[in-house]
Amino acid sequence: MFGGKIINISYEQYKKSAEFLKDRLNFVPDIAVVLGSGLGALTREIEPPALRIPYGEIPGFLQSTVESHAGELICGRMSGKNVALMSGRFHVYEGYTPQMVSFYVRVLHLLGVKKLILTNAAGGVNQSFNVGDLMLITDHIKFFAQSPASGKNIPEFGNRFFDLSRLYSQRLRDIAHQCAANQGTKLREGVYFYMPGPEFETPAEIRAIRLLGGDAVGMSTVFEAVMAAQCGIEVLGISVITNMAAGILPQSTVSDDEVTATAAKVSERFCTLIKDVIAVL
Predict the structure, then answer these.
(1) The model's pTM
(2) Which domains are seen in the chain, by residue range?
(3) Which residues contact 43 (CB under 8 A, 6 or more apart)?
(4) Among residues 260, 253, 202, 236, which one has the least CA distance to residue 67?
């Protein structure tokens, strides 16, 4: 089973992290945004002064080992709202379990966050997509991977058995579409297919993913989204199509350099969309 053994994290551990952050913050965040690979430019849009806290200082938080993930929590005002930006996230391929990867979501819940925007860099599987497209996640597929809610249930975070049929909020997607239309941007919609990484997928795997209904593929997001659903947090998921997945384009290869370069090219359009969505929420 992907994700290793189940780690039971106690309510007291989550509470300790939340209390540490409450002591540092002078407001309750309205919205949290998680920034995927190469998408950290949004942190420059926080109005000064901003509170920047390295993950290593927060009790219970993991260390981000991916170069394109800064590894800090940045809190302040953006588009008239109190926001918390996660500049960098954690992945199972870094050696963490799904429970550890999504630890911060329960901490955000204890801080009072009600809305979570999850962003990522993803490979395009849908052959009508283009590199640089922005895709709203309508649903996801996560086969064989352990649930972040596995282990001892903590009632403070919701029921053990919970519904995922409306995990990715239609209301928030409608808002994103309207904001994108106002700026002249067309958004794609599709199903995000989770793969554990860190290697990119084979052409055969991509063909299987397409047959199973995946429109984009990536190595993050789903564990955090599932944990948010259990906590009752409304979720908006946005994938930046930074490359076409293996085997779709003839004689092309997939690389992390391509992912980072494409993310930089769409940065302005991406940041404008997120800021406009936050302003409406």
Answers:
(1) 0.94
(2) 11-280 (3.40.50.1580)
(3) 35, 70, 74, 85, 87
(4) 260
